[in-house]
Amino acid sequence: MNLHNLLNLLKYNPDNPITFLSAQFFWFIVIFIFIYSVFYKKVLARTIVLLVFSYYFYYKTSGLFVILLFLVSVFDYLFIKIIPLSRNKKILKNILFTLSLIFNISVLGYFKYSNFFLEIFNDIFNSSFAILDLALPIGISFYTFQKLGYIIDVYRNNVDPPKNIFEFLTFVAYFPSIQSGPILRAKNFIPQLRLKERFLSDLSIRISNEQLGKAVFLIICGLVKKAIISDYIGVNFVDRVFDNPTLYSGFENVFAAYGYALQIYCDFSGYSDIAIGISLLVGFKIPINFNAPYKSSSVKEFWQRWHISLSTWLRDYLFLPIAYKVARLLNNKKFLKIKAETWSYHLATLLTMFICGLWHGANFTFIIWGLFHGLGLSLERIFKSFFKIRGGKVSLFINTFITFHFIVFCWVIFRSSGFENALQVYNQIMDFNSYSIFLDVISGYKEVFIIILIGYLLHFLPAKVDSFFEKLVIKSPMILKASYLILIIWIISQMKSVAIQPFIYFNF
Q1: Is 124 exposed, middle or buried (0-12, 13-18, 19+ CB in 10 A)?
Q2: Each residue of 274-328: pLDDT tens digit?
Q3: What span, in angstroms and rounded, lies between the C-alpha atoms of 120 and 123?
Q4: Other CB atoms within 10 Å distance of the CB of residue 35
Q5: Which residues are catalytic?
């Protein structure tokens, strides 16, 4: 390979961006671990190595948007360093904090919501402002929330500012999570950067067998979820039905809705599993981001199990401050004979879930999806305040069944390209008169239905079964651990009918 070809290989290629499932990522991680292992004894040196590789990884996913990532991170670093210096000047501290919020929200808003609001403005005022030619930087929603969380924590005096700019830049750009999370917390991540001794593998550096085994187990789980389950049912069934729901029967639309619920879970949790597994390989422990969410017996429990890093972020930085503010405004008294506590919960819930929906995308379908979840949370609390439901397996099953179908109903809106598309799916489902073609549909899509069935069976397995297989991988010799990974990669290659699909949450 000559120098010209090598340079072309190292450049960003929009038609072949680096992802966890690409061949180039394998070489990226191998080279990274080798170089990282050389500098592992020096905290600053290994932080800089991690930073350089993280920025190069982001460059290979997003091209010149890496410059935007650097600039906004530098600005936020300055805010984080200056805000604590003004502790004795409350007004100045509040001004700096407000400016930092405006800055971050403005950058996110410009790239993600400019055209959305321009279209609304044009529709309302019959104007003709030109739609901007903007590309959405991958991961901007995630790293913006990550930075905002750190700024808010520093403002509240809950954490100390970073010791140097390299710490902060690495925290923001950390390559396993930069594309689609989990959303990191500075109080958990930065202390791990500062540990004097870290991991590592067979490069004469320490990593426990348990840590290595758990990393392999999570990577295997992520690969199975993403490439075997999510991509296959998405390309071969779900996408076809949602693109043209009226061409398919009510039965097919029903199972497309069930299929999408599984597809988005396997896609997103698969990414999180791989990110957490890779983090373990390089010595960082990141909390789980999904915990079998469809086992939930309430909408509240669903959000305790789904996208945990986002739901806890929304709770700590939006819901609780809003609820506290509403309660203070009402002076903890009744309004319209309703307690201030009740008002604060329901208003904070609806506003938080509205923002949650908007965070996911510049489309009214996402906003309605978020509001439906907010209404579900509120109605659930109201219902429980009036009715005391006895526990038991039957009650648990009924609650889980109802919750799951509410979640699936909402996913239809989330997946649809617009309200008309969603209504078409709902209408086909309501006009369910396709019993006669039941066997024909099953026969025509038998591989898809088998994978959907297997996916849900795996999801609803008891936690102790997951734990058993995790321990099995942990206790396996190194050669077996490698064999498990090779076997999964071979199965993926045999099942792959099309190219590996981008992760769904890259769009958000």
Answers
A1: exposed
A2: 999 999 988 899 999 999 999 999 999 999 999 999 999 999 999 999 999 888 8
A3: 5
A4: 14
A5: 360
C-alpha distances out from residue 450 to 253, 407, 411, 432, 482, Å: 17, 22, 21, 22, 27
Q: How far is CA 312 from the centre of its chain?
A: 12
3-state secondary structure of 335: strand
Which structure tokens are listed for 185?
A: 């917390």
In sequence order, the 6+-apart residues with CB closer than 8 A to the CB of 98 are none
Helix ranges (H only) for 387-445 are 393-415, 419-430, 438-444
Token pair recorded at residue 106: 């403005």
Under a CB-based contact definition with an 8 Å cutoff, are residues 286 and 308 in contact?
no
Is residue 223 within 8 Å of 488, Cβ to Cβ?
yes
Backbone φ and ψ of 490, nearest 5°: -65, -45
The pLDDT value recorded for residue 187 is: 94
Q: Cα angle at 217 between 27 and 54, to 5 degrees?
A: 35
Tokens at residue 130, please?
A: 């030109």
The rounded distance, in Å, linking the Cα atoms of 401 and 394 is: 11
Distance CA 331, CA 344 (A): 11
